[in-house]
Amino acid sequence: MGLSMSPIIVALDYPTKQAALDMAQQLDPEVCRVKVGKELFTSCGPAIVEELQQKNFEVFLDLKFHDIPTTTAKAVRAAANLGVWMVNVHASGGQRMLAACREAIDKSPHKPLLIAVTVLTSMDSSDFQTLGYTTTPEEYALALAKLSYNCGVDGIVCSAFEASSIKNHTHKDFLTVTPGIRLKENSLDDQRRIMTPVEAVKNNADYLVIGRPVTQAKSPSVAVQNIVKELFSF
Ligand SMILES: O=C(O)c1cc(=O)[nH]c(=O)n1[C@@H]1O[C@H](COP(=O)(O)O)[C@@H](O)[C@H]1O
């Protein structure tokens, strides 16, 4: 199986470069991509992205930028200059912010996929109540997805639950990137809107962001292989 067939992105949520590289060492860049998030990037900076790319991994830089349009667009441009495969911003930054990010990438020599985060998979309706929101996470995710689509963003981060409905209301090629993936035997941890890998793909998830179910498995490489096998056999 080539990388173009694989939906798996392994979240390298580690505090040090060594820990992240030790995990990457156990993974195959032909079978999965990797995600560098806030903890690892804040500890190690752009060097970790460069090092992973040198090891042939395609990198999703997950820094969830959320700021005024100019600042966010410049941050996205800096990510593009790093050569990453995918970068994300918060859709709730609004129409002008999303459009500015689109323009920044369009003007960059290297063009990562621009993805907007809708509603974090750790949130459920009780979190929405405490925020005073009168909508449900599913409705709000769909509204933010439609906004992102209309701003020319390449896709969204959402829970796998919402992936199908979002594609139906936008376009089949609008990418759905879904964290909150759990195997039957895994604990929920801080995630709330979860699905198994097979359920997620059946519900039109294009990419599955998987952290602890792989990185805390006895053998991360076997865990990835088992997920891939399951995905190609249903
Ligand atoms: O943008 C993300 O990647 C993200 C968005 C979201 O809504 N939920 C979410 O869990 N994530 C990230 O996906 C990863 C999930 O990790 P696990 O819960 O360990 O599988 C973490 O690195 C989160 O930062």
From TrEMBL:
Instruction: Give residue ranges for domain Orotidine 5'-phosphate decarboxylase.
Output: 7-227
> What is the catalytic activity of this protein?
orotidine 5'-phosphate + H(+) = UMP + CO2
Keyword Lyase, does the record have it? yes
| Lyase among keywords | yes
Q: What biological processes does GO assign it?
A: 'de novo' pyrimidine nucleobase biosynthetic process; 'de novo' UMP biosynthetic process
Q: Which UniProt keywords apply?
A: Decarboxylase, Lyase, Pyrimidine biosynthesis
* Coiled-coil ranges from the UniProt annotation: none
Against InterPro entries, the record matches this protein to:
Aldolase_TIM, OMPdecase, OMPdecase_AS, OMPdecase_bac, OMPdeCOase_dom, RibuloseP-bd_barrel
The record's section on CDD domains has: OMP_decarboxylase_like
Please give the pathway this protein is involved in: Pyrimidine metabolism; UMP biosynthesis via de novo pathway; UMP from orotate: step 2/2
PROSITE patterns, alphabetized? OMPDECASE
Active site at 62 (for ompdecase activity), 64 (for ompdecase activity), 64 (proton donor), 67 (for ompdecase activity)
**What's the Enzyme Commission number for this chain?**
4.1.1.23
Cellular component (GO) terms are: cytosol
Q: What are the GO MF terms of this UniProt record?
A: orotidine-5'-phosphate decarboxylase activity
Question: Where does the chain bind substrate?
Answer: 13, 35, 62-71, 121, 182, 191, 211-212
Q: How does it assemble?
A: Homodimer.
What is the similarity comment for this entry? Belongs to the OMP decarboxylase family. Type 1 subfamily.
Function text: Catalyzes the decarboxylation of orotidine 5'-monophosphate (OMP) to uridine 5'-monophosphate (UMP).
The identity of this protein, by name, is: Orotidine 5'-phosphate decarboxylase
